[in-house]
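Run: sequence + flavin-adenine dinucleotide -> complex structure.
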Amino acid sequence: MEKERNYTLKIWRQPNAQSKGEFKTYEVKNISTGTSFLEMLDILNEELTLKGEDPVYFDHDCREGICGMCSLFINGRPHGPDEEVTVCQMHMRMFEDGSTITIEPWRARAFPVIKDLVVDRSAFDRIIQAGGFISVNTGVTTDANAILISKENADLAMDAAACIGCGACVAACKNASAMLFVSAKVSQLALLPQGQSERKRRALAMVEQMDKEGFGACTNTGACSAECPKGIDLSNIARLNREYFTASVS
Amino acid sequence: MSLDAKIPEGPLAEKWTRHKFNMKLVNPANKRKYDIIVVGTGLAGAAAAASFAELGYNVKNFCYQDSPRRAHSIAAQGGINAAKNYKNDGDSVFRLFYDTIKGGDYRSREANVYRLAEVSNNIIDQCVAQGVPFAREYGGLLDNRSFGGAQVSRTFYARGQTGQQLLLGAYSALSRQIAAGKVKLYPRTEMLDVVLIDGKARGIITRDLITGKIESHSAHAVVLATGGYGNVFFLSTNAMGSNGSAVWRAYKKGAFFANPSFTQIHPTCIPVHGDQQSKLTLMSESLRNDGRVWVPKTVETAEKLRKGELKPVDVPEEDRDYYLERIYPSFGNLVPRDVASRNAKNVCDEGRGVGETGLAVYLDFRDAIERDGRDVIEAKYGNLFQMYEKITAENPYETPMMIYPAIHYTMGGLWVDYNLQTTIPGLFAAGECNFSDHGANRLGASALMQGLADGYFIIPYTISNYLAGVPFEKVPADRPEFKEAEERVKERIGKLLSLKGKHTVDEFHKRLGKIMWDKCGMSRNEKGLTEAKKEIQELREQFWKEVKVLGANEELNQTLEKALRVADFMELGELMVDDALHRRESCGGHFREESQTEEGEAKRDDENFAYVAAWEYQGDDKPAKLHKEELIFENVKLTQRSYK
Ligand SMILES: Cc1cc2nc3c(=O)[nH]c(=O)nc-3n(C[C@H](O)[C@H](O)[C@H](O)COP(=O)(O)OP(=O)(O)OC[C@H]3O[C@@H](n4cnc5c(N)ncnc54)[C@H](O)[C@@H]3O)c2cc1C
Ligand code: SF4
Ligand code: FES
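>> structure
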């Protein structure tokens, strides 16, 4: 059965990219334990609006843990305390009655704040544009079963392809490195026969773009994978390093 | 204006091939002289934008999310159909066509549906070539599963994330064209109007969601691929931002709206838990492959379950009613969605529903786990089970899931001809936002198929045919038609910001949703619909007096975005009610209580209603005008659908 709880929220408020932000404190009451974290913020925003105060801005869309839009840094952890879920899938039963919850945006040079908890992650799109694709035009293909792919490789490719592009890995990393995100795409395509011919170019171009966007260097702390809501494995980074090395020397 | 669906001559199986041959082409060197606007980056939009660019056209592509990869297609779980017949179980293009027509309860156009089935195979080839990691068998071949409404295994899938993988495939193709400079991307940008010049669609008005800037964009043709409008109901499985504004604005500029009341209610969603909820979560239909749906046989047992005095696992076999298997022995748990949803409602109305609210039924994996072992079930549905557990704090390996129907998909949409062109020349509609292929009920795994068919394989041809007749000259975006449209958009925004009322946008949205769900939802009748119409009108009036939207236009203002969408939903909702009222038959997801068989199944009236209802806007204070596109069936025989 569901219970009702009260919380104190410390939320980062920043009117726009130019201004300096600050934490503001809010109280929310009678939140049922089955309410999702974002529904709890909806409730706060309804109250703020009725009082004539600017609601708290945050990104979200699918609320099913798959679009990668939600991006809150809660009590010092991207997507909050629950394991392998995005913040939109987390429920208030994770938080003790009466506790204080701190909510911040992703913090990284490459993800500038737009307003409150909303950040600009277009750097990720530009990394994919640099090489995260297989160059095949519409209609120029053979039968889907013409090339066999072992179940093992297909499964590994799928593991890597599960990345939702949320950026939690960057937010979790003390260097704000994007290696886990980049390695997931490079791995997926390197594991498939269709991805072979552009393999080298892809690894080089994506890493180059990543550096250009101002993401930090990877020092193998593993914080990214630990906080990734989709459990993207560190072995992908090892694979990216191999891909990059092979491509650089040849 | 009379409706011409422009269905090509010739036998069904040859129509598309012939039509492709007969259509005009644009010479490769001339393609770069044409600009196309594509609104939407879901399967339909991203596939179309990438394919146009590959052909050489200049594309502007818009979405309201921060990245095209987040379009709501990403959330599709279960799979995508194709008539590959890799299982050698008797599938064929004709069978997929037949199942889709029948599943849609004979309210879709034969020629379109046949073409959809025909290109379905190309889609799978395309996606595999892009690196979409579909599930495979140990031998390395592609794997399939079954979905409702079909007796063959034709659904391709990528774990429980098929939509994500297909969309990321289309997004990668799109990204490649962005890098090549052929597509200019406008994320966090919302389309607020279409602009017509000399009766043709020549551009759109947008709002930059970060700066609030209202801008005009001109082009030679406009493609809408903006998804469904299920959020009219407030609670649905659609993304929070999914909206009907683009199609609604097109409607108000003269595009006909077809079958607006045809909505799909998905049988397997996580039940509503309280009044603080803002979003419903779907549990993939694929679960019905192995899960068995049941409720207790008696109201007394149901009451004990609701109060928590009895656990579902302790209900003995003889006290369980596996009602789908009982009523529909040949399809069992895999009946189409409308049938499964309605039956769930029926047993709950009888008082046999479970869960705290009594609005839930069980989906039980006990027998499947016993038969195949937990590992096998985990490999198939692990992520769905995890998702369920995160939301409900219950473990579906140990206790049956609870599910209830929820709004999921809209079959209705902009009326389009065979070329996917609306009644406005130069304005095309692709994917869920058109009405084209699913009739009165969509089969599972067919929306992804349709989105990609439209985007990759149909619209690139048909738009060339249109553009071949359009002069190269660009229309400047500072023509008076654009300026006027911009002014109207600004006025509307100004009005919303000036109201300073006392009710939030969400309050209005929730009230609208409740009217729609209660009176224009899973079952509908004359009285309820007549009331709903009046209630919506009153609500709309109140909205335009008392809504409270804070802040300014010139900034990120999520309340304003919502207010604009809800304002449109309140008009669209009324048209849905009008459509439901006028269609005095039951068909597919549209269940009119007045029209049912003795056994309580939907009863069609082919004599009077075998048509597409296409509504034409006549002005805000005038009723919309009904146009009928008669449906002619030459290749299938109309029968009462039976899944028994
Ligand atoms: C939870 C869920 C699960 C599903 N599972 C399946 C499944 O297993 N199999 C299946 O076949 N189908 C499934 N469906 C249905 C299917 O996913 C959708 O019908 C399909 O993906 C719609 O694709 P689309 O390209 O038409 O629109 P969408 O993917 O919804 O994209 C709409 C695009 O339009 C943009 N947009 C909308 N309005 C505006 C505006 N005003 N201005 C600018 N941009 C705008 C959005 O930003 C977005 O880019 C599922 C649907 C849901 C909700
Ligand atoms: S690797 Fe994980 S944390 Fe990083 S973007 Fe992908 S899903 Fe998010
Ligand atoms: S809102 Fe889509 S992943 Fe959280």
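>> summary
Chain A has eight helices and seven strands. The first strand of chain A starts at residue 4 and ends at 13.
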